[in-house]
Amino acid sequence: MRRTDRTADRRALAVGWAVLLATAATGCVSMPSGGAPQRLEVSQNAADALQVHVYPVAPHKGETPRDLLAGFLDSSNADQADYDTAKQYLTAVAAQNWKPDAGVVVLAGAPNSPPGLPPAEDAVSVELQVTGKQVAALDAKHSYQAHSNDPYERTFVFVKESDGPNKGEWRISDLPDGLIVDQTNFKNTYKPVHRYFFAQADPSAAPSQTSPVLVPDPIYLRRRIDPLTEAAQATADGPSRWLGPVVTSRLDDVRVLGASVGDNRTATVRLEGGDPAACKQMAQQLFQTLADQQSKLDRLDLSMTGGGGCSLSSAEAALVAPGVLAGTDDGVAAYIQLDDGRLTRYQDTGLDPVPVPGVLGQAPQPGQFRPGNAAVAVRRDGGAAAVVGADGRDLVEAELADGAKYGEPVVHSRAPQPGQGLASPSWDGRQDLWLVDRDPASPKVLMVRDRTVATVQVDGLNGQSVQSLRISSDGTRIALLVRRGDGPTTLLLGLVQHGGTAQQPTARITALRDVAPQLTEVAAVSWGDTDQLVVLGKEADRLQQLHFLGTDGSQSTDSPLQGGDSMTALSATEARLPAGPGGPAGSGGPAGSAVLASSERGLSLLKDNQWHEVPTKGKTATAFIYPG
User: What is the pTM of this model?
Assistant: First the structure.
């Protein structure tokens, strides 16, 4: 069989898988104008069930360097754990030195090799370039990073073997470490999973605010090479370089000997090394990592070769599960602010929105403090709210309880105009409040704990100013909308590091990174899950759309949610409860995000992947929020 035929057969198999996946995954949903169209998604388990295996093909005698290059690229992306077949395309020295696990380059299309003259008959060395447009990369720790069609070019050197069993044959003698793959084969070969680490304790917080919680760290692993053991080992290897400064692990210096899940929904993990005294904490990390790939997991049994072990139930795992600080049933309660200033709770039953108890549920009287539009943040436990006044200068807090009144202003801005003052109050799950002061003379990010206000240092803004923010429930990550001068607003994601003392807490935002380089302008952002951002933004020369982005910048669905061109604002929640009859208002269910969006047609709720009009019974809504 000719090299070109083998390559065509293998690529046809990959393309066939991609067509099947695209057929299942393609779909969109628009804002409701009549019926409620649905968006069809292919689940991770469904993609796994396709089970399209790609087998490597060894080189044949007499193949040219160009044929060998195509065969090597194909074989290096096949379903083979040790890359033995791909290494047959290399010289003995190159095979020993090549590091295939150093990372993955993801190109928009198939890797190109510019055409050129075949090597002369007496040539003993030749170089070929691989080029393309890079759209993503995985590093050595499996972490994803988005690219914006960056030019990619690498050189492969071929030599003609002078002795040994391959004498007279061309082989690759010099090549870049890692793998090169196109988007189609990346989807076939790799699957998104998560590893989990404990959020670092805040040294300035009270003991009641330092309960442990796991933070997701998204990665990509090969789909069919023992994915459970690979995921467990990736967790033991530690967090990504980016997330590492704000999390801790109890799996340091541990090697995973095996991980599996039985029909009884019990995971079994065998470890070499590890501290027996930390068995439960290790099990908590591994439980979430393995549960991420299963429809349901009831228990995890952990054993260590040096002796020791433990079992962890799903109930025990839930105590530190990601999102445990998101507010549970309170976190999926939707609130609507009416044009008369009252804050109401949306019941999701077709009834009128019910005013909240206390002063926030009452229409402000002349001369009284008046909340600004879209300037209310309900605490994640539903017990209180922070409110920015209509003039943008003062922030006050009020309990959501009968008889509650506004407290004295906690924060005051000197901004000359309302649109330049305080904005976007946002609560984390430990009852710290975050907001922005956009005063042109002194722009800053603020953290409020009780009534103590701390100015937050933000590293890496490079002349940009923060326009709004949203903090994650675990308090480790923060989404910032930033702008330079009068330019477009873009999205950055940063880490939050705490310090100081109980009397003088400090906070710092570091490691800012662009998780949406494809978006030229962003109108709004919210947390839609512990590892997911819901973003309203534009790509170049395209209409505004609603995007679901992972915290690593990867697209959380195979296509962005359509119909965002008429949207003006959104709110989402990390909280998750099963949807169904009698379920909580706004619940998106375990598989979907609960999202509220406003457009020229009014308010709409995304629930169970369908848009539903939010009736306000003739009243005009000026804002809507989920807790946080």
Answer: 0.86
